[in-house]
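queue> pop job 88
queue> type: inverse folding (structure -> sequence)
queue> payload:
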């Protein structure tokens, strides 16, 4: 066929052969276009699902930031910035795709009841032209104004996100630089070509649209990864063992010599960023006011008086907000107050005497037991409590009286201690003049 003069029949055969080859290429092109269309549909569905997940994630983070601002406010601020950068790029691309779709079907120009016209949106085999996007993004061999905006949007997203998170998550930063690079590329002929020309110039309509959806998908995936990393890092820091210290847990506040000690060492979380949203505590049944405590360094610090000697109980709840729900942490602790020594006790061991006919002031106490846990009684006479450990006793008949002191130890054990006193009459009064009593022989006055 290459040499000699061709007959008309031969020319016809050659022409038919060329048409056949063109038809094969056309059919292959249709298959490729349909494949791009299916891919674009799936990307659009996946992007919608990713958007919902990211929005729910941000809403959950906003709740945590309002509940625990010290711990999550900074994370939320950075997450909002990442989301804003992503929305700026994806919204721009969605606008471009919208302009492209209007070339196929414009609601303002087409009859909305014309279902035949709508079918073109799904007829990917006819979406093979590139004229519209070529005219929009390119001007000769250079980029048009819109093409420059496209590149600027890509660069702003890449540089903005990397500057926000690159130092904390360098591996994500490297991936972003790779995925969203707009640097020149090598084409199949190993010639340098601009990124936008390489990806969109002379590209079929549906292929360009699919590539834009892929960029949107990469933005959503990147945002999901960043949000997960940021929240995970914050929670990991909060749960780190550097946030714990040891506490001594014991069944009571005081123990006696040689008594078995059943205390235990436990880990207590002490996070300065963890603060209750509300404090509801009582001291011996009386509500604590805001001036009686402060919240600092991850603890509720009490500013109260130790009160009178005896056991005191602090009860109530520390209330936290978790995902919008109130969580109550119960508080039920006791502490003991003992009287501060301010005087010595001096007693004559053999002078346990009370006098008949008068009130005898008495003091009854048991070392280590608060006054409100001590009671006393007498075997005869009148026994009256004055206040605290002070009593008055008036004897009746008999030569002795037994006083019994009863006390309750901190562990609930009861003890009882008796003490015997003699009962004596008050001595008769003896008069004296100049220190001389009336005893002895009479002195005759001269």
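queue> result:
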């Amino acid at each position: 066929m290459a040499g000699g003069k061709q007959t008309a029949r031969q020319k016809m055969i050659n022409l038919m052969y060329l048409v056949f080859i063109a038809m094969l290429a056309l059919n292959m092109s249709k298959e490729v276009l349909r494949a791009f269309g299916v891919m674009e549909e799936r990307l659009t569905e996946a992007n919608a699902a990713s958007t919902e997940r990211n929005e729910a994630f941000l809403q959950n983070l906003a709740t945590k930031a309002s509940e625990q601002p010290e711990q999550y406010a900074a994370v939320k601020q950075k997450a909002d910035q990442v989301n804003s950068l992503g929305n700026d790029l994806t919204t721009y691309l969605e606008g471009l795709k919208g302009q492209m779709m209007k070339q196929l079907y414009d609601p303002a120009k087409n009859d909305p009841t014309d279902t035949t016209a709508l079918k073109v949106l799904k007829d990917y085999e006819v979406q093979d032209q590139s004229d519209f996007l070529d005219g929009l993004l390119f001007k000769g061999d250079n980029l048009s104004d819109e093409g420059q905006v496209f590149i600027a949007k890509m660069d702003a997203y890449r540089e903005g996100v990397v500057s926000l998170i690159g130092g904390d998550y360098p591996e994500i930063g490297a991936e972003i630089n790779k995925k969203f690079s707009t640097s020149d590329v090598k084409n199949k002929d190993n010639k340098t070509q601009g990124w936008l020309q390489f990806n969109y110039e002379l590209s079929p309509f549906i292929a360009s649209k699919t590539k834009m959806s892929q960029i949107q998908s990469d933005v959503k995936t990147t945002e999901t990864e960043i949000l997960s990393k940021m929240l995970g890092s914050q929670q990991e820091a909060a749960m780190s063992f550097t946030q714990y210290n040891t506490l001594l847990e014991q069944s009571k506040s005081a123990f006696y010599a040689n008594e078995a000690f059943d205390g235990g060492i436990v880990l207590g979380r002490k996070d300065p960023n963890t603060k209750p949203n509300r404090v509801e505590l009582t001291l011996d049944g009386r509500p604590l006011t805001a001036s009686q405590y402060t919240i600092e360094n991850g603890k509720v610090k009490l500013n109260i008086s130790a009160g009178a000697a005896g056991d005191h109980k602090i009860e109530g709840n520390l209330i936290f907000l978790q995902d919008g729900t109130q969580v109550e942490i119960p508080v039920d602790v006791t502490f003991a107050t003992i009287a501060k020594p301010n005087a010595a006790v001096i007693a004559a061991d053999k002078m346990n005497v009370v006098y008949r006919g008068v009130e005898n002031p008495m003091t009854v106490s048991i070392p280590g037991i608060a006054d409100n846990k001590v009671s006393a009684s007498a075997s005869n006479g009148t026994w009256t409590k004055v206040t605290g450990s002070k009593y008055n006793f008036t004897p009746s008949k008999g030569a002795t009286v037994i006083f019994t002191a009863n006390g309750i130890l901190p562990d609930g054990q009861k003890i009882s201690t008796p003490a015997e006193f003699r009962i004596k009459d008050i001595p008769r009064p003896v008069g004296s003049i100049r220190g001389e009593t009336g005893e002895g022989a009479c002195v005759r006055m001269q």
